[in-house]
UniProtKB/TrEMBL annotation:
Keyword Metal-binding (UniProt): yes
Gene encoding the protein: nudC
Domain Nudix hydrolase: from-to ranges: 128-251
Keywords: Hydrolase, Magnesium, Metal-binding, NAD
Cofactors required: Mg(2+)
Name of the protein in question: NAD(+) diphosphatase
Phylogenetic placement of the source organism: Bacteria, Pseudomonadati, Pseudomonadota, Gammaproteobacteria, Oceanospirillales
Recorded GO MF terms: hydrolase activity
Amino acid sequence: MNDTAVPAFQRYYLAKSGRLLALGGELTPRLRQLNALRSAAEAEIEVDQGIGLLVLPETAPVPEEEVTLRSLLAQAKDEQEYARHSRAAQLATWHDQHRYCGRCGSTMRDHAQDLARQCASCGLIQYPRISPCIIVLVRRGEQCLLARAPHFAPGRFSTLAGFIEAGESAEQAVAREIMEEVSIEVENIRFFASQSWPFPHQLMLGFFADYKAGDVQPDGIEIEAAGWFSLDNLPDLPPPFSISRQLIDHFFAGLQVSD
Ligand SMILES: [Zn+2]
């Protein structure tokens, strides 16, 4: 990459093979620390004002200091920093996974104007991938429905979540996922907030819903256990930075206000 072709950023996230790296313990090293790496980079992408993402080739001579994304997000000091880490991670994944055209197999290159990759042969354009998901807290009186997937840490329960399917609205996805995973009907589905979730590129749309009918029956595949929990019998919960935890905290805070 020609240094004169791209305006430099003040700081850079580093990525190799779709993963973020630290350099000398620094997550976003300054420009002057990066001259040799910069000249070998595959791409420079703006993450935020003054901060870029330097996409390094597999062969780049950089010490492997892989960053654990979950701990990075957990330590973000505010929503702005969380969003920046999330964006850097997702752009790194996207760039790594769009090297070749999905239509004709030719090499993709950076689009001239947009943040996109374009096929050098057939012109297909691929923008950074975002996968919308729903995540929902189902309430029944003063209890909420929490469930655990087989891959969760021992004892951990969370709200139900799933990908939105093609042609489906977010509300339809809420009703379908809950029926599929635990066999209950819900009503009064209402939006709460959304959160970027870079594992690897979800947009989590958070909802509340009310229990309507049915007995909780985990599907045994995606969900191995589920049940109704009240404030005095909560299991191990997801970390505070997650939207799942924000749904749970918001629900119980509302109950205490109305007491
Ligand atoms: Zn193509």
